[in-house]
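Field reference: sequence -> structure
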Amino acid sequence: MSLKDRAKATAKNIEGKVQEAVGNLTGDPKDQVEGKEKQAEAKILHTIEDVKDEVKAQID
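Structure field:
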């Protein structure tokens, strides 16, 4: 598990949530969509790290 990669994914998720919330407050659909995209990207990054952890556990 790469703690650094997980931290980056978590930061991207938080950034996406904030951007989506700002978009909701201002009514800006572009910010809403970009925020959701960042959250989806963070979820993918977390999944990749989970797979890496599982592969490493199987090898060990």
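Note: The mean pLDDT is 95.
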